[in-house]
Amino acid sequence: MSVVTTVHGIVARDLRRSLRQKSRLFGGLARSFMWLLLVGTGYNAIARVDGAASYQAFVYPGIVVMAALFGAMLTAISTVYDREFGMLRLMLSCPAGTMAVLTGRALSATLVGMVQGGAVLLCGPLLLDLTSGQLAAAAGVLAVAAASSSLLGLLVAAPLRSVENFAAVINVVLFPLLFVSGALYPTTSMPPWLRGVARLNPVTYQVDLMRVALGQPGELPVGRSLLALAVSSLAIFGLAAWLFDPEHRMVKTRN
After folding, report:
1. Contacts for 159 with CB less than 8 Å, ≥ 6 apart
2. Which of 15, 137, 168, 208 has the lowest tally of Cβ within 10 angstroms?
3. Beta carbons of 147 and 106 less than 8 angstroms apart
């Protein structure tokens, strides 16, 4: 069985599963629009951010990233589900290897994240004066953000053995990633120690890249953000592969 065939089969299977779970897809979209319309509109009256026409305009890039983040990371629940019912063991024992399985899982989660983030991005012209070039750049950043978020989801799912555990743990991970990223307020306004934590958060670089792509001032150089996401994604994928490696688990069990 070739690697390409394995990856294609996993992506097709996961996307079919995601399309059948329409309530989860619509729920993810509803969450993003509620944050944008309710929180953004409410804070317009009391919050002002330098360089942004309104708080709603400032928070919009973060909401696009949030939609991709939640969509991609929550898709990892299928990995935990397959482990709980024994399917993952069969997938990891296929000749293509663990890396092919994780690549397929990451690609399917990336596509789900792009769909959810893309739906919010398409509403951008209703809030901001955007050019076609800015929308194209934002779409590219969205793909990078969704890919990075999908790997974070795999890493969270790696040590978990039941869907109930995943549901309990994922929210504890998701909300700090969002809140300490500059999506809802500038990281420059944070206390120094929290700003340092934000610099270790991959979502911080996703948000900053999206903000720059949509014509808003960023806090970090674009090259630094891209490098940080590339390095963190490689490290996260390597760690997830090590945790999922069945040989590693067998050695650990014998010890």
Report:
1. 243
2. 168
3. yes
d(CA 185, CA 49): 8
| Separation CA 106–CA 7 (nearest Å) | 10
Rounded Cα gap, residues 186 and 183, in angstroms: 7
Amino acid symbol at 155: L
Cβ atoms of residues 111 and 11 within 8 Å? yes
**pTM higher than 0.85, yes or no?**
yes
